[in-house]
From TrEMBL, chains A, B:
Protein origin, superkingdom: Bacteria
Alphabetic keyword roster: DNA-binding, Transcription, Transcription regulation
The HTH lacI-type domain, residue ranges: 1-55
Lineage: Bacteria, Pseudomonadati, Pseudomonadota, Alphaproteobacteria, Rhodobacterales
UniProt-recorded name of the protein: LacI family transcriptional regulator
Length: 342, 342
DNA sequence: GTGAAAGCGCTAACAT
DNA sequence: ATGTTAGCGCTTTCAC
């Protein structure tokens, strides 16, 4: 059933029906009601492409993920984030288009998005420290918001980020205050902006605590279970192993834990690891020196906010960029077991 | 730059340019070349909405995820799956639309997808045992493929699934053969089809081994870290704790491990847990009784295949349904440590 | 081999 | 308050 059929059926013009359905004021209440009722009855839905062609809007937002290095997608965080964004889109009647862009084809992909007009705005995921995408998007004139930041980008742009620097600074500081001097960092790829910032936070806290950073206690690799395992195992096998560890993701932590298991070490008393869940009660039993970053619901909030931000930018294309910094939660359960002699 | 401008520029009609660009045979080689070259030079891209309106095709596939119970999205597996699907779409020039559908609004959402015409086909995620969506999609006449199955659905339909029954049967059997009699199952929500099948596999293996299933060794809940922790902790606190455990996802396993850590138990010698990674070398060191289900690359393959399946169904709408069963990998490293006396 | 013209289903400017 | 008409940018008959 299309608009023509519906309007013929009602004995009205397409225009009137369209106006009635889209809430234009010049339609009489009685006809609007009649139209709405009939539309509901027959289950009429305007064709999105036709409407888009007429209005020049796609009513869709593109989420663009770099995909060869899987650091982003695999991250459980992505699921929560996208769920939050989806909520916003649902409310605003936008569709969510997911673009998986292989490394190296980025520029082409963005240009394509801009010119084919399948989306009205874009969310940039997984920004690197040096990220050419932001300049490109500026040039293309497509409204966009970045989830994260690109440290070396001078142009102003809208972003939402977690304060990675501060989170890792505080986490490291906490471990240092517990007496640890050999604190390891198992990080993601450090050309990724978030990972870089985390490292900076870690380093600055070490420095503040008068601890000299050791290369053999820092690892940087794609965030997979295997890499977490390798990194942890290698560190434990070297002369002067760490007494505490920070990992940069749940997935790395899983691998790291396995290595600890194999070495006969127990998390509760020997290391600290970052986790990610909403209900923290199970961390508060005093057994863990657990460090916590982003709760699932906060990630979801982030998704929701970012989505709202693009929609705003679409409405007001030349509004000044907005930036949102989210604070990571840092929840700590003190160890009841003996703290390993640092 | 649109078609009209481009053709004016070339001194040709829109028709000819369109034909040249779309590979129609009646265009002379020389003009085709000239057109193509110029199109590339100015970066011409046809407007997707206009083309869609003219052809009646959206060139997009919808992936529909139920979203109130997060079992699907949060699963790291989803990332790999969607990456695989994305690969296929990229090759075939399709877009990927993600629909996050809140529980309860499913029917409306599917009807909307079918009538607004934003997608040409659909991938159904997270099927439940009784899933009304399949009947609905049949009725709507929209090509679709299910990732997973709906056990209680009588109608034929295309699906791709992992053999969950077999995987858990074999895993349980293996543990039983090691001498375990108290094998726990920490499962997802069992109205979800995959979880139900896993439980059936577990139960059948117990029966075959002459082990009476115990309710207190079976848990079923949303797949979150907290739930994994609770389930494991509760089991360990009860009179007759398990000597081996099967968990239904990485996330549950993380929580379960934490509970084990807290109880001073070590994975390597006390339990077995399902994991998920591509590089299994680190499991083969003889320390783990690890049970492994889906490698990341196999999940990616699954995504790729499912995407191909919808595209096929779009091309040949009344082809008989195709079904693909994937075998879960089962990789086991024998424990070198003492096997706990069951 | 190329072009003119109709039309995909809708919205919006312009009547009335 | 309702209708007429002209597009949106493309593909696709149909004519030449």
């Amino acid at each position: 059933m299309n608009l023509k059929q519906l309007s013929d059926h009602l004995g009205l013009s397409q225009t009137t029906v369209s106006r009635a359905l889209n809430g234009y004021p010049e339609v009489s209440e009685s006809t609007r009601e009649r139209v709405q009722l009939e539309a509901d009855r027959v289950g009429y839905r305007p064709n999105a492409r036709a409407r888009g062609l007429a209005t020049g809007r796609a009513q869709a937002i593109g989420h663009v993920l770099p995909v060869s290095a899987q650091h982003e997608m695999v991250n459980p965080v992505f699921g929560d984030f996208i769920a939050g964004a989806g909520e916003t889109y649902l409310k605003s009647n936008y569709d969510l288009q997911l673009s998986l862009v292989p490394d190296g084809e980025e520029e082409a992909a963005y240009r394509r998005l801009a010119t084919t007009g399948t989306v009205d705005g874009i969310i940039v995921h997984g920004p690197r420290m040096d990220d050419p995408r932001i300049g490109l998007l500026h040039e293309l004139g497509l409204p966009f918001v970045v989830h994260g930041r690109a440290s070396n980008e001078a142009l102003p742009y809208s972003w939402l980020d977690v304060d990675n620097y501060r989170a890792f600074h505080r986490a490291t500081q906490f471990l240092a205050e517990l007496g640890h001097r050999k604190i390891a960092l198992i990080n993601g790829l450090e050309f990724m902006d978030f990972a870089h910032r985390r490292r900076q936070g870690y380093l600055s806290a070490l420095e503040a605590a008068g601890i000299t950073p050791r290369d053999d206690l820092m690892s940087s690799a794609e965030m997979t279970e295997v890499n977490g395992h390798h990194a942890m195992r290698d560190m434990l096998n070297r002369p002067d192993p760490p007494t505490a560890v920070l990992t940069s993701s749940l997935i790395l932590a899983i691998g790291a834990r396995r290595a600890l298991d194999e070495a006969g070490l127990q998390l509760a008393r020997d290391v600290s690891i970052i986790t990610h869940d909403d209900d923290l009660s199970y961390l508060r039993n005093g057994q863990d020196e657990a460090i916590f970053t982003a709760t699932r619901s906060s990630v979801r909030d982030a998704g929701r906010i970012v989505a709202e931000m693009v929609l705003e930018r679409i409405d007001v294309p030349d509004a000044p960029p907005r930036t949102v910094m989210m604070e990571a939660e840092l929840i700590i359960g003190r160890s009841t077991g003996p703290c390993p002699t640092p």
